[in-house]
Amino acid sequence: MEIRVPIGVSVAPRPGAANDVSDVLDQVRNVRRAGLRQVWFGQRFDFDSLVLAGVVAQAVPEIAVGTSVVPINPRHPVVVASQAQTVQAAAAGKFRLGLGLGAATLESAAFGITEDKPVLRLREYLTVLRELIEHGGVEFAGERIRVNPHMPTTVHGGGHIPLLVAAMGPQALRVTGELADGVIPNLAGPRTLESHIVPTLERARPSRPLQVIAGVPAVVTDRVEEVRARAAESMAFYERVPSYRAALDREGVERAVELALIGDEEHVRRGLRRYVEAGATELLVTQTDLAGADDQARTWEFLAGIAG
């Protein structure tokens, strides 16, 4: 039975790959052969998700690409507008730009920057980014962002980019509802979607529905306890990030792994359906590699079979 909404998967280089880009391309081709139509790329400090999305879009033109997510603090919106439009042109209109407020501790250590007004920065960032992409430039003097490129910023073929934000706090959700095209929260469980995220977005912009792309860790496997132990270790990082900690508390769980759907096909199907019933318009399934290549392929094929 179908889930009724589109389903995409996150893809990252496998440990030990000789060439990370070639490895991702191999995986994306396998994702497409399995029957899925959307892949997403995260952003850390290694490969660049926007560059990778453009490469994948040209190499595997049948699949849609997106970022989940590009942190806004280290990159000026003029730079991101240029990159995103280039990806959109390469993807022939099948690209979505996911943005995030970032993790303060990581960004402070890596870049030596601290943003003490993240919601204000998000508001200014989305305002400027939309103008740069859709109108070819903007003059803007805000409290956190200043822009006046004095040259056109349009990349022909690169417009009409859906802007998504990994927002979960009430203020960030309000800004997202007002200025973006949707939300792409990771580890926001069904209770959080239904009682917090969706209602806040609807109040912020009642005139039209927004995309709600729920990030859900899921693996179809028979080795449940083994894979759950791996997931608990790999997901523990989120428990120390304040925004994720707040989301876990709102969901009523202590450990991030409690939101992971690990089990047979029916177990994962029931879990994903709860997200759709809570208001998700699309699913982004993460952590599919935790059980190895065979179970990852099994998971992808299952997801393709139930995707709306």
TrEMBL record:
> Would the keyword Oxidoreductase be found if you checked this record's keyword annotation?
yes
Which keywords does UniProt give here?
Answer: Oxidoreductase
Q: Report the EC number(s), separated by commas if there are several.
A: 1.-.-.-
Please state every residue range assigned to the domain named Luciferase-like: 11-281
EC top class, in one word?
oxidoreductase
Top-rank lineage group of the source organism: Bacteria
* Alphabetical list of CDD domains matching this protein: Tetrahydromethanopterin_reductase
One Pfam family it belongs to:
Bac_luciferase
Instruction: Fetch the InterPro entries from UniProt.
Output: F420-G6PD/mer (IPR050564), Lucif-like_OxRdtase_MSMEG_4879 (IPR019910), Luciferase-like_dom (IPR011251), Luciferase-like_sf (IPR036661)
**One Gene Ontology term of the molecular function aspect:** oxidoreductase activity, acting on paired donors, with incorporation or reduction of molecular oxygen
**UniProt xrefs under NCBIfam families:** F420_MSMEG_4879 (TIGR03564)
Q: What is this protein's name?
A: Putative coenzyme F420-dependent oxidoreductase
